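Researcher: Structure for this, please.
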Amino acid sequence: MIHFEHPYLLYLLLLIPILVFIYIMVKRYQQKRLNAFADKHLYARLTPEVSHSKAIFKYSLVLLAFALLIVAVANPQIGSKMVKGERSGADIAIALDISNSMLAEDIQPNRLARAKNTISNLLSKLNNDRIAIIIFAGTSYTQLPLTSDYGAAKLFLESISTDMIGEQGTAIGDAIEKSMQTFGYGDEERPWQKNKSRTIIVISDGENHEDDAIAMAEKAKSEGIVVNTIGMGLPTGVPIPQYNKGNRIGYKKDRDGNPITTKLNETMLADIASAGGGVYLRAGNINANLDEIVKEIEKLDKQNFGETMFSEYESKYQYPLFLAIILLVIELFIFERRNKIINTTIIFGKKEGNKID
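Model: Predicted structure, C-alpha cell format:
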C-alpha cells in the first residue's frame, strides 16, 4: 500500500486544472487578437509551419511533469515490513479547566476553545509520549487515561464542554491530585515508583477558589512530578457569557444584578508552576508559545513502554522524479513547427531559415 510522507503537499495538484484553465483563456485571447489582425485562412497561409497540436502536446508534458514533481516531493513510500522496536517516552497529564469562566471571550473565540486548540498543537509536537486528559471545575474527572493514541486524544478533546461538570468552581489542587492518580499514585494495586518521567500541565484562567493548589503542586514535585501551567485569558476583567441550549442569553450576574467578571490570575498560575518545579506561560490572544513546555518535556527521563511493532517504509520518490525529468527533456526537444519532431535549435544552437517553395 502506498503511503505519502508529506500528504498535504498533494493539494498542490489542484493547481493543474487552474493552469489548464489559464492556458485555454490565453489561447482564446490570442486567437481573438489574430482574428482581428487577419482572416483565419489567410493566417494559415502566412504561417503554414505552425502546429497548434504540438504546442498543446508540449504544454501537456510540462503539466504532467509538474504533477510528477509534486508526487515526488510528497515522497511516496511503500511499507516493506513490520519490525520490532523499543518505545520510550514521558507520561503527561493535561488538566483542563472547564469552569464557566473559561467561556469568557477576552481571547478569541473563547478561553476554552483556545485551550483545546493549544492542547491539539501540543499533541502535534509530541512523539512516543503517553498523555492523559483530566477535566476540572469544582471537582475533577479523568476524561482520558494514559494513552499513546493521539488521534483518540483529539477526538476526546473535541467533545469537552463546560456542561460536563455540574459542580462549578476552579479546584486546581484537586485536578493536580487526580493527575497524579493517572500516573498510579495512591493505587494500592500498583507499587508507586518515584521517577522523573512525569509531568502535569494545568491549563486554566487561574481563578482558584476551592483548595490549596500550591501545596498540591509542592506534593507533586516531592514525588518527582513536574507541574507546568498555561494561563488562558487576559488580566483585565471581562463578563462571562451565559447560554441556554447553545444560544447566548446574556451574561452571568450576581444577586444584585451586576455582571460577574473574570480575569486571568497570572500570580496564582506562576506560583503553582514555581511550586511544582515547572514553567508558566500565557496564551494571550495568539496561540500559546509551546516551545518552553516542549523543552521541559524533553528534559524528562524517558521510561521504557516495552516492545512495539513499527511499519518500516521505503521511499520511492525517485521514480516520479525520474519520469518528470524525462518528460521535461522530451518537451525541450519537440519542435513546434509542422513536420518537425526534433527541435534542432536545442541540438545545434541555431535557427534554421524558413524555406519557401
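Researcher: Any notable elements?
Model: Confidence is low (pLDDT under 50) at residues 352-357. The radius of gyration is 32 Å.
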